[in-house]
Amino acid sequence: MIKDKIGRRLTDLRISLTDQCNLRCTYCMPKEIFGPNYPFLKRSEWLHFDELDALVEAFLCLGVKKIRLTGGEPLLRPGIVNFVERLKNHHNLEEITLTTNALRLAKEVHALKDAGLSRVTVSLDALDPRILGEMNGRGISPEIVLKAIEAALSVGLKIKVNMVVQKGVNEGEILPMARYFKGLGVPLRFIEYMDVGNHNRWEIAQVFSANEILKKIQTEFEVEPIDLSSSAEVSKRYRYKNHTSEFGLITSVTQPFCGGCTRARITADGKLYTCLFASTGLDLKKILRSEKYDNTTLLSVLSKHWGLRDDRYSELRAVNKSAQEKVEMSYIGG
Ligand code: SAM
Ligand code: SF4
Ligand code: SF4
Q1: How far does residue 127's CA lie from ligand 2's centre (Å)?
Q2: Distance 330 CA to ligand 2 centre (A)
Q3: Any residues with CB less than 8 A from the CB of 244 and at least 6 apart, and which?
Q4: pLDDT value for 59
Q5: Nearest to 88 by CA among 69, 61, 107
Q6: Domains of the chain (ranges, CATH numbers)
Q7: Which of 107, 142, 165, 316 is the 20 to 30 A CA-CA neighbour of 89?
Q8: Nearest C-alpha to atom 12 of ligand 1 is from which residue?
Q9: pLDDT in tens, 312-323
Q10: What's the order of all strands across the beta sheet hosting 12-16?
Q11: Is 125 strand, coil or helix?
């Protein structure tokens, strides 16, 4: 297992399977920018699944134990179920998970479960159809997502739900969402709105902080923390008192956790990023397709690259005013 300069292990690999999406969430892919003329990757630019297999094997040697499939919308990538099965059967992984907007999830739950998916994280920002429709940029109402969650639960897939909270937009949905998912026994994770990419016009004033979220929840529920000391947890977990349900707070903006950031990210066209806010990535496709490619070279390049890593964008956010372009969230996958 390798550690970077400031002692960060590498345990998680996020693989984006496509940068395309069937939604246009205002905070991620605003439709004014991500329209018909946006230069999405062509299919021919995607890494092939056998190339991804080779990368996964190398990352396993470096300490990775968990893989998350993401996007764009990962369920738009043909062959994803077979890829989950390959990951399950060919590699010794602790967890294979998927983050999805769930528009295409319901019809895949059986196949994904049988293929060996450990868990699915569904993104849902509101139960109110008007608020959700505006946030997802396509007027999609919550029913389709809630039905997919039910379908996943019915086949025994473990689920978490992610809700991005934006001040003045959906903070009024915190309590309805908390009530609903407490009742369902599904962990809900409230995510502080982040300044990802270059187009969501993020301002700190639009961040509804984790402390504010917690206070709002406490107006209705008694809650208690669950092991806030665990460095393995990016989310600060809480339990509703006298209940088995829990929720989490992802405090990326107000209480950054760069020191505990153990994730590497690969884009659909094979760029390796060591931070969600980086400008450039290492071109792994070039390495995989070069004549001199072999496993040892790949391992040594990856190990050296992670070893040189000193990313801590979120910790420096308040002082770093540089206007450097950042990678887009839909391309790197969150
Ligand atoms: N399309 C899939 C989905 O939405 O679940 C997977 C990719 S999406 C980029 C991954 C996660 O990033 C989602 O849970 C989404 O809510 C989150 N996300 C996107 N933009 C964000 C932002 N500006 N701040 C915080 N979270 C964001
Ligand atoms: Fe698509 Fe997910 Fe981004 Fe929404 S958050 S636009 S669903 S990639
Ligand atoms: Fe990791 Fe970069 Fe986020 Fe810090 S800002 S937690 S280094 S991805």
Answers
A1: 17
A2: 6
A3: 185
A4: 97
A5: 69
A6: 12-332 (3.20.20.70)
A7: 107
A8: 334
A9: 889 888 777 666
A10: 223-226, 236-240, 246-250, 188-192, 158-165, 119-123, 95-100, 66-70, 12-16, 263-266, 271-273, 282-283
A11: coil
